[in-house]
Amino acid sequence: MHRLGAAAHVGGEVIQRAIYCRSRSPVALAIRLGDGVGPWAHCAGLIDDEHVIEARGWSGVVVTPLADVIRRSSEHTVVGYKVPDLAYGQAWARATLGAPYDWGGALGVPWRRKWQDPSAHFCSEHLEAWLSAAGLQRFRSSARGIGPNRSYWATHGLIPIP
Predict the structure, then answer these.
(1) DSSP secondary-structure letter at 39?
(2) How many domains does the chain have?
(3) Ranges in the chain, pLDDT < 70
(4) What is the value of pTM for the model shown?
């Protein structure tokens, strides 16, 4: 396996890495259709070279080996985010371990349900809150229904961020 790392230094900037992925399961297809017919059904943040913190249905917020995330995916990509405070963002993510999965939020993505719930998380709301804790707030706090594809598209500037 190649070494991705949680953080990279590009031009002196600290970069938090995240993985976006999908599988061929009916649930993944439903997520992709409900989130703007995009390519991704799941996302997670890397905390070191070999682990991610992710919010998963039935499990809540957990640490998972990166190799397991890649193995259960039919396709994946890793992206980086320039963040002002990598350590604080990762400390926030670690503090959320054990939080329950936000079923209401995940099921509400197509209807743009209020996504910020501090006591429970689905994958993309967890990643966006993590990035916000690291000093990179890409969506207004009133944003609703941030699914994995809106999160990914914002990475590449395809969605204007006010």
Answers:
(1) S
(2) 1
(3) 1-12, 109-118, 141-144, 155-162
(4) 0.85
**For residues 57 and 36, what is the distance between their CA atoms, to the nearest angstrom?**
20
**Lookup: tokens for 17:** 């890495």
User: Nearest Cα to 79, choosing from 29, 1, 22, 153?
Assistant: 153
CA distances from 19 to 67, 77, 116, 121, 131 (A): 11, 6, 21, 17, 13
Q: Which domain holds residue 98?
A: 7-155
Domain-located, residue 2: no
What are the tens digits of pLDDT across the range 9-46?
A: 555 678 899 999 999 998 888 888 877 778 999 999 99
Domain CATH number, residue 42? 3.90.1720.10
Packing angle of the helix pair 86-95, 123-133 (nearest 10 deg): 140
User: How far apart are alpha carbons 44 and 32 in whole angstroms?
Assistant: 16
Cβ burial of 95 (10 Å; 0-12, 13-18, 19+) is exposed
